[in-house]
Amino acid sequence: MDCAFLESAPSNRRQFEIRINGACRRSVINADMSQNDAMHKDDLEKSGEALIEFIESSKAESILRGAREKLQEFFDHHVLTKKTTTELLNDLVHAEEVVGQKLLDLEQLKSQMAQEVERMEQEVQRSLSKSQILDSEQEFLLKELERLRDTEQEIQTLQQEVDEDTTEVIPSAIYIAQLYYKVTKIKLEVDTEPHILRGVHYGMDVATPINIDTSTRSACEISDDLWSLVTTEW
């Protein structure tokens, strides 16, 4: 509310100045007209006195009639001039008020347009900021997508290598394990602790369990223990 009052203060002040100027102009013109009326009154009184003296001295009726007609014309002209001057003054003051109001309206419209332009500039600035943020986010997402694609390609390559190794190694390991079992009759467990060698030796008469801690025995000792279970009879 205070902002609206401050914005309208210059317009109200301008309108007040226009009205004061019009009133002052009316006062000056009215004063001039009053002064002119006083001068005309003096002239009329002097003319009337001179006319009376002339009538009393000459008694010329025709001259008196002519003087009366001229005096009437003078009065008529004076009244018409005063009326015309007053109308012109009123028209001038009204025109000044109309022009002043139009100026005030233009100033108000200019202020509104300036505010609208400022608002649009702020909106454009916010849009540019949002666009920059979106561009940055898009660039980041594109880089992240490219990185994920590279990672996916690496995973596919590793998976292919693992598949190839599995295809080659597992059958070979199975073949070796089967061959080892046929020769030694020893079947080792796979799901054991890293340092535990566990399994079963299937002899001709009895099955012998195997449970060796590889962390406390040497490879040669372990090999000797295993081969000691194998029969030499064929």
Automatic annotation (TrEMBL):
Assigned GO CC terms: Ndc80 complex; nucleus
Organism domain of life: Eukaryota
Keyword Cell division tagged: yes
BP GO annotations: cell division; chromosome segregation
Localization, UniProt: Nucleus; Chromosome, Centromere, Kinetochore
Keywords: Cell cycle, Cell division, Centromere, Chromosome, Coiled coil, Kinetochore, Mitosis, Nucleus
Coiled-coil blocks: 103-168
Pfam families: Spc24 (PF08286)
Listed transmembrane segments: none
GO molecular function, one term: microtubule binding
Biological function: Acts as a component of the essential kinetochore-associated NDC80 complex, which is required for chromosome segregation and spindle checkpoint activity. Required for kinetochore integrity and the organization of stable microtubule binding sites in the outer plate of the kinetochore. The NDC80 complex synergistically enhances the affinity of the SKA1 complex for microtubules and may allow the NDC80 complex to track depolymerizing microtubules.
Complexes and interactors: Component of the NDC80 complex.
Family of this protein: Belongs to the SPC24 family.
Name assigned to this protein: Kinetochore protein Spc24
